[in-house]
Specification:
four-stranded antiparallel sheet; Alpha-Beta Plaits; single chain; globular; alpha+beta
Length: 217
């Protein structure tokens, strides 16, 4: 699978600015492709795995494109000369682009990944299941959810996997993170699975806004 990553090394933003990045790029290029924002012309959401994702990792803003999204980032890289986030305009003095083919899919060995941003794991129903579960049973629920989120990523990028995805019990800690001005239960930590996954791709809910970004450790 092809992956493109654009970084802005001179800028420092907060993690919550990820959705502002998304708004800016959607405003600039969204009429050309709904991959920039995943909304229809009438404003309704398109429920699919986002092929363009906006991140702030360690204070550094980045945009990643997967598959078709990778080509869109290459095509518009030279046009990005500033970022307007809310009332502030950031002039771009430096930007970096990396575009390459990356392996994706089940592999014969376990690979360990760290969450670089909080994993938004729980839907409303799963949140209730998690709260009602006994403490010793909660890791197994998160392990099951991780496997499902990996399969959702595969489906979203058009990778059809015939082999079984295996996830080892994850090493996670609960954290409280802001989502649309609400405190939500999310998780940080690491997991191991028998799969190749793209660095900084997101797992779980709201990955376009930067949640659930992973990196192989």
């Amino acid at each position: 699978m092809h992956q493109t990553t654009i970084r802005f090394p001179d800028l420092r933003l907060s993690r919550r600015d990820g959705h502002k990045l998304r708004g800016y790029f959607a405003e600039q290029f969204g009429e050309q492709s709904d991959l920039w924002h995943n909304h229809r012309a009438d404003g309704r959401a398109i429920y699919r795995y986002p092929l363009i994702q906006y991140k702030v990792i360690g204070g550094q803003p980045m945009v990643i494109g997967l598959g078709e999204g990778a080509g869109l980032l290459i095509g518009h890289f030279m046009e990005v000369r500033e970022l307007r986030l809310d009332e502030r305009t950031y002039t771009i003095h430096a930007k970096q682009i990396e575009s390459r083919d990356v392996p994706v899919g089940v592999n014969g060995q376990l690979h360990t990944y760290e969450f670089c941003s909080p994993w938004f794991a729980l839907s409303q129903d799963n949140y209730r299941r998690y709260q009602e579960a006994e403490a010793p049973d909660r890791p197994a629920l998160l392990q099951q959810l991780l496997a499902g989120h990996i399969l959702a990523l595969f489906k979203g990028i058009g990778h059809w996997e015939e082999q079984h995805v295996m996830v080892a019990p994850p090493v996670l800690r609960p954290v409280s993170a802001n989502f649309k001005n609400r405190k939500m239960l999310m998780f940080m930590g690491s997991f191991s699975a028998n799969v190749h996954l793209p660095d900084y791709a997101g797992l779980g809910k709201s990955v376009a806004r930067g949640f659930g970004a992973i990196k192989k450790s």
